[in-house]
Design a protein that fits this description.
Keywords: ATP-binding, Cell membrane, Membrane, Nucleotide-binding, Transport. With 331 residues, this protein is of the alpha/beta class. It has ten helices and twelve strands. The protein has a single domain, classed as Rossmann fold (3-Layer(aba) Sandwich). Strands 6-7-8-3-9-10-12-11 form an eight-stranded mixed beta sheet, with helices on both faces.
Length: 331
């Protein structure tokens, strides 16, 4: 018997209404997430990853809006939830880690004040208990001298330290779902490894589900159970991480993998995906990746749907790579 998903997104559409017409940043997004599962959301800048995350948190501001679809969280549809309902969920059951930590931190308040208020906004506990939990969260993300740091202001931290504080705030309530928007971009590799290990333990021990938004395939390959690849506002390939990384079926996924520097590429030219992502105001007809795809065929003039591909994968492509010759996979 299949467990009921913690999160089920059906045909999500998010658009921004402009004077030139609607810009559909996210279209036809459908995905499921089980408790304790980690999903990597991967794609180039402008592919719609962050807008997807903001849509799932109810953080799309005018002129943007969620124009269609359902966001089923623990059985309840959040798509039309009023702001009061979102405030009860955010931070407690659903948390977001932003790429810029100053979207989380108030520059004029001490760290302990901000963390204590975050805890007490959802739980009726004493300030001393809330402070102890805040201290524990700072220790979890590798911040030294946590008692001293609790009494500091955000400007007294480096960029990487501020990001760790933002991550610690997201962990305070051990939420059911965390949406992380490239949270380790500003961190050195040692601290990044500590954070990744911590969130993996959190998901394993508490059943917290995680959506990790990134352009870094190396991080996803070692972190996520499944990966969804986005292009031009749509998911083009989705499946178990090991399968997608080792044997990509969509030419765009293949291009992302090939563009990653690796040990064998010393003194050789890095590969790249030719061309540019299309305008979301006037996307090309048919497959949106076709103008950049060297595997494009006349059939790609038709609009591809996201369909099952094998036992547990989905693919939006009319010319998948596994119908051509086998692709070389680099270590």
């Amino acid at each position: 018997m299949t467990a009921t998903p913690l999160l089920e997104v059906r045909d999500l559409r998010t658009q921004f209404d402009t004077r030139l017409g609607p810009v559909v940043a996210v279209e036809d997004i459908s995905l499921t997430l089980q408790r304790g599962e980690i999903l990597g959301l991967v794609g180039e800048s402008g592919s719609g990853k962050s807008v997807t995350g903001f849509s799932l948190m109810g953080l799309i501001d005018a002129p943007g809006r969620v124009a269609g679809g359902q966001i089923l969280f623990d059985g309840s549809d959040l798509a039309g939830l009023p702001e009061k309902g979102w405030r009860a969920l955010r931070g407690k059951r659903i948390a977001m880690i932003f790429q810029d930590p100053m979207m989380t931190l108030n520059p004029v308040l001490r760290i302990d004040t901000q963390m204590i208020e975050t805890v007490r906004a959802h739980e009726k506990i004493s300030r001393s208990e809330a402070r102890a939990r805040a201290r524990e969260a700072l220790v979890q993300v590798g911040i030294p001298a946590p008692d001293e740091r609790l009494e500091s202001y955000p400007h007294q931290f480096s960029g990487g330290m501020r990001q760790r504080v933002a991550i610690a705030i997201a962990l305070l309530h051990k939420p059911d779902l965390i949406i992380a928007d490239e949270p380790t971009t500003a961190l050195d590799v040692t601290i990044q490894a500590q954070i990744l290990a911590q969130v993996q333990r959190l998901c394993r021990d508490t059943g917290t589900a995680l959506i990790w938004i990134t352009h870094d395939l190396a991080v996803v390959s070692g972190l996520a159970d499944r990966v969804a690849v986005m292009y031009s506002g749509r998911i083009v390939e989705e499946g178990p991480t090991a399968q997608v990384i080792s044997h990509p079926a969509h030419p765009y996924t293949r291009g992302l993998i090939d563009s990653v520097p690796h040990g064998k590429a010393h003194q050789s030219r890095l590969q790249q995906i030719s061309g540019m992502a299309p305008s979301l105001l006037e996307p090309p007809p048919g497959c949106r990746f076709a103008p950049r795809c060297r595997h494009a065929r006349p059939a790609c003039d038709r609009e591809p749907a996201l369909l099952p591909h094998g036992a547990d994968r989905r693919l939006r492509c009319l010319a998948p790579l596994d119908q051509d010759q086998p692709q070389e996979v680099r270590a």
